[in-house]
Specification:
mainly beta; Immunoglobulin-like; 9-stranded antiparallel sheet; globular; disordered N terminus
Length: 656
């Protein structure tokens, strides 16, 4: 679960100035300034609210002091004398957080509109020995309520921000050189282990045949491990690489920091190999189901299609007219005649429609809004409609509906009807701290259900069972198999990338395919080993299906079928290209004092300069005819990222 934290506005009155040796700005911008903060929401869920000072940037002639949280979200501060503001970089919004120039007796509002009065003010030295302003506030309405605010720290117990409906604990504060504050209930080792900013890595690869270019985007790291998939590992970055043999190569980059944290990214590069999947049609569909090797059905955002030739040609199915425009959420056929579709309108009025003649005609059987997302139809005609809050069943084509007695979930993971009419349901339920994964199995048409606790992992997303005992479950980066109905599980595939296994489909207990992180994997030994099937993860994979030893997939750019290409020509393919590339250049490069952007676009660009370790040195908006001054940078290599809208390009800049 994600929570949004909102700083509470602090209002100060009767501002005046007093003189001390270090300014408010100096104390909030000490190099390496780190606040280790624990946040607990009203359910008790923990979040890491730590903040890290990353440096300054200039935007529209204003200097901003940039903090980042552990998720690398920027928090810009603007400091004017004794006043500290949160100030947006993209709008005129600003919020006064602290004013260390107010006098004793002045009042302010904190803690959700409670009035506090400044009772005393003085100088305090924390563990680093620096003089800081300390202000003590009391509540006139509640005499036992008091709070303390310290210059360069914020709230003594909480740090810089207060969050609604949350308990905030400032555990420690430190800089590159000194410990500033340590909570008496917290250890120095614990503080050190959380003193590293959020670590992150990714990369872009472009190339032709055996030669590739490599550009990384890595932040807040101390060491790396890089391989281009041929068994050779490097502990530093390379600009380019050449392969010795043709093949499908998995490029992997992992970066580490001194806190023991890491970030991982991988991608595949195809050097002259047949991808084994050939496009049959340009049609864009999101879900597919085939009854045999020829007859299949699919849906897009707003249409339903049928094919009778294995996907080479698709015909749109006409759905019944409605007062509101509606879209298909799911499609399922139990045979070549009987199908069921869940639809939704723009006003979220969902309904179920059925066909008994292969999709030629349809009739609505449910008008109520049950927040449905999926449905199946058994061979005996029973229909099960699924929502995140449960399952509804009808045995009489929608005249009567029964809400089946299983615990509510909050997120629908997956639903399957096996060939012997076993029902398998994956649901995520809201726990005290996160979404918890559960599996439900019914062998008696939904009358009773066996609940299986899957909370040993997280993010249940896909299922495929052969019967009530044998099957697979896809979790967040891991695939599990059971042979005893879920009493025990074996991890048969672990993917370091995480992100979840999107879809699983097996033709037999030995041969199966799955999709994870937009990559096809295939097994021919019952899941003991898995091989990459489609060596290209530049396309989004929507759906996967197999029947009669044929494999089909719906990708973002069209419909594909697994088959070798007899006309495959290495010279005719462009192996991998950078996605979302911005058509700009920088010049001069190398340079000594400045550079500018060469592009034909109008408006401004967002420019960010980082050193080779990922530290932000400059971040600002500029126009294409504006020079960027780098005279103060040391000689060396820098990464310059230029972004406009959703397009980005990264350059390596040499400063002489």
């Amino acid at each position: 679960m994600k929570y949004l934290y909102y700083p509470i506005l602090l209002i100060s009155l009767n501002v005046h100035t007093i003189g001390f040796s270090q300014s408010t700005q100096d104390l909030f911008t000490i190099p390496g300034l780190t606040f280790v903060i624990d946040v607990y929401d009203d359910t008790g869920q923990f979040s890491d609210g730590s903040l890290y000072y990353m440096g300054d940037t200039i935007y529209q002639d204003t200097t901003y002091h940039i903090y980042e949280n552990k998720r690398r979200q920027s928090i810009p501060l603007y400091i004017d004398g004794y006043k500290v503001f949160y100030k947006s970089l993209v709008s005129d919004y600003q919020q006064l957080l602290f004013d260390f120039g107010i006098e004793i007796g002045d009042s302010m509002i904190i803690y959700q509109d409670y009035i506090y009065v400044l009772e005393s003010k003085g100088i305090i030295q924390l563990e680093d020995g620096i003089d800081r302003i300390e202000m003590n506030f009391v509540s006139p309405e509640y005499p036992n309520w008091n709070t303390k605010i310290i210059e360069g720290i914020g709230y003594q117990k909480h740090g810089m921000f207060l969050y609604y409906n949350s308990q905030i604990i400032l555990q420690c504060a430190s800089t590159n050189d000194n410990q500033i504050f340590l909570n008496e209930d917290y250890s120095l080792d614990e503080c050190d282990s959380r003193s590293c900013p959020g670590i992150e890595t990714s990369f872009e690869v472009s190339g032709e045949k055996e030669n590739i270019n490599f550009i990384h985007h890595s932040y807040s790291f101390d060491s790396i491990s890089l391989t281009f998939g041929d068994g050779v590992y490097f502990d530093d970055f390379l600009d380019s690489y050449s392969y010795q043999e043709e093949g499908c190569y998995k490029i992997e980059l992992e970066v580490f920091n001194e806190c023991g944290e890491s970030s991982y990214h991988s991608d595949y590069y195809n050097y002259c190999t047949d991808p084994k999947w050939q496009k049959q049609s340009d049609i864009s569909i999101r879900n597919i189901q085939f009854l045999d090797k020829d007859i299949g059905f699919g849906r897009s955002w707003d249409k339903v299609y049928k094919t009778v030739d294995g996907g080479s040609n698709w015909t749109q199915i006409t759905l019944p007219q409605a007062e509101e425009e509606y879209m298909p959420n799911s499609i399922y056929f139990s045979d070549n005649q009987n199908g069921v579709i869940v639809t939704s309108s723009k006003e979220d009025n969902l309904r179920v429609i059925i066909s008994s003649d292969g999709g030629n005609t349809w009739e609505g059987i449910l008008e109520e809004n049950y927040n449905l997302c999926d449905a199946v139809r058994t061979e005996n005609g029973d229909i099960f409609a699924i929502s995140a809050r449960g399952i509804y069943r009808t045995k009489d084509n929608g005249i009567n509906w029964t809400h089946l007695d299983i615990p509510y979930g909050w997120v629908h993971g997956d639903f399957q009807l096996t060939q012997d009419n076993v029902l398998i349901l994956a649901q995520k339920k809201l726990g005290n701290y996160d979404f918890l994964s559960f599996l439900y199995i019914s062998t008696n048409n939904g009358d009773t259900w066996k609940e299986i606790d899957m909370t040993f992992d997280e993010g249940i997303s896909s299922v495929h069972f052969f019967n009530a005992l044998n099957g697979y479950v896809g979790m967040k980066g891991d695939l599990y198999r059971t042979d005893d109905g879920g009493d025990t599980w074996e991890n048969v595939l672990s993917l370091k990338e995480g992100g979840g296994i999107q879809e699983i489909d097996f033709e037999s207990e030995e041969i199966g395919v799955l999709v994870a992180n937009n990559i096809f994997y295939r097994t021919i030994d019952g899941g003991s080993t898995w091989q990459v099937e489609y060596c290209d993860n530049s396309e989004i994979i929507y759906s996967l299906f197999q029947v009669d030893n044929q494999y089909y997939s719906a990708l973002k750019d069209g419909f594909y079928k697994r088959s070798p290409n007899p006309d495959f020509d290495c010279d005719a393919i462009n192996s991998t290209t950078i996605q979302n590339k911005l058509a700009v250049e920088i010049a001069p490069n190398p340079t000594t004092d400045y550079f500018h952007i060469i592009g034909n676009g109008e408006g401004s660009y967002q420019v960010e300069i980082r050193d080779i370790k990922g530290a932000v040195l400059l971040s600002r908006n500029i126009f294409s005819d504006e020079s960027i001054d780098i005279a103060d940078l040391s000689m060396g290599l820098y990464l310059v990222s230029i972004q406009k809208d959703d397009l980005r390009q990264t350059f390596k800049l040499v400063k002489n």
